[in-house]
Design goal:
Layout: E1 5-9, H1 16-29, E2 36-41, H2 46-52, E3 58-62, H3 79-84, E4 89-92, H4 95-101, H5 105-118, E5 121-126, H6 130-134, H7 138-149, E6 160-163, H8 177-194, H9 197-202, E7 204-207, H10 216-220, E8 227-230, H11 237-244
Parallel strand pairs: 1-2, 1-8, 2-3, 3-4, 4-5, 5-6, 6-7
Length: about 250
C-alpha cells in the first residue's frame, strides 16, 4: 500500500513569524494523521519554521533547489543550504516556475537528480494547460514531461509526482475526481513503461489542482490518487488539517 502524502505549498506567502504561527496552529490538528504531512515554505521562512516543527509529525519542504552545489547563481538556493535546516522535501517544476521563471523539463531533470543525490525527496510537478487538454494533447504533454524530467533516475520510487493540471491551479476549477484518477493512472502506466511496472505501483502520485477541504474526500477515495499538493488551502490551519485528516 502507498502511504498518502499531503504537502502544503505556501508559494510566496507568510513571513517567518506568520509561518511559525501557522504551523503552531496546524501541528495539534494533524498529530494523529495517517498520512505523511509536509509544509513547503519560502526559503527565508525555512530556519524559523524548521525550529517550530521540532517535535511534530510535520516534515519541512522547500519550494525550489538549484542543480549546482554552489556558485554564481544569484537568488538560488542549494541542496546543502536546505539540508542544514532539516529540509526533507523539495518541490521541483511547479507550473508557476515553468511559466514565470523559465523552468524546462531539462532543468527539472537536473534539479531532481541533484535533490536525490543530496538525499532530498523531490516532489516533481507535471501537468497540461487548458489548451492542451482541450486539443487532446494531455497524454503527449505528460509523457514528454515524464520522459525528460525523470531521465536517468535510478530509483523512481524515491520521487513523489504531483499531477497539477495548470488550468486548475488558483482558478477554483478542479478536475473531477474521475478525470484526475484517469490522468494519474496514465502517469503511472507511463512510469511503468519507462522504468518498471512494479516500481510504478510504489510511486506516490499526488493531485495538485485546487484540492480543498470540500473535495478532498472524493479525490482521495480514488484508487490512483496518493495525496495532494495543496496551495491556497494550506494557508489556513483548519482547511489544511481537514485535508490531512481526509479519512476521519
Amino acid at each position: 500500500m502507498r502511504k498518502p502524502i499531503i504537502a502544503g505549498n505556501w508559494k510566496m506567502n507568510n513571513t517567518a513569524s506568520e509561518g511559525v504561527a501557522l504551523v503552531k496552529q496546524i501541528a495539534p490538528l494533524v498529530k494523529e494523521a495517517n498520512c505523511d504531512v509536509v509544509v513547503c515554505v519560502p526559503a527565508i521562512d525555512i530556519p524559523a519554521v524548521s525550529e517550530a516543527l521540532k517535535g511534530t509529525n510535520i516534515a519541512l519542504g522547500a519550494e525550489n533547489v538549484h542543480f549546482a552545489e554552489k556558485g554564481a547563481f544569484t537568488g538560488e538556493i542549494s541542496a546543502a543550504m536546505l539540508l542544514e535546516y532539516g529540509v526533507k522535501y523539495v518541490i521541483i517544476g511547479h507550473s508557476e516556475r515553468r511559466q514565470y521563471f523559465g523552468e524546462t523539463d531539462e532543468t527539472v531533470n537536473k534539479r531532481t537528480l541533484t535533490a536525490l543525490k543530496a538525499g532530498l525527496t523531490p516532489i516533481v510537478c507535471i501537468g497540461e494547460s487548458l489548451e492542451e487538454r482541450e486539443t487532446g494533447e494531455t497524454e503527449a504533454v505528460l509523457f514528454e514531461q515524464i520522459k525528460v524530467g525523470l531521465k536517468d533516475i535510478e530509483d523512481i520510487k524515491e520521487v513523489v509526482i504531483a499531477y497539477e493540471p495548470v488550468w486548475a491551479i488558483g482558478t477554483g476549477k478542479t478536475a473531477t475526481a474521475e478525470q484526475a484518477n484517469e490522468t494519474i493512472a496514465f502517469i503511472r502506466k507511463t512510469i511503468g513503461e519507462l522504468f518498471c511496472p512494479k516500481c510504478a505501483e510504489k510511486v506516490r502520485i499526488q493531485y495538485g489542482g485546487s484540492m480543498n477541504a470540500g473535495n478532498c474526500k472524493e479525490l482521495m477515495a480514488m484508487e490512483e490518487i496518493d495525496g495532494g499538493l495543496i496551495g491556497g488551502a494550506s494557508l489556513k490551519a483548519p482547511d489544511f488539517a481537514a485535508i490531512v485528516n481526509f479519512d476521519k
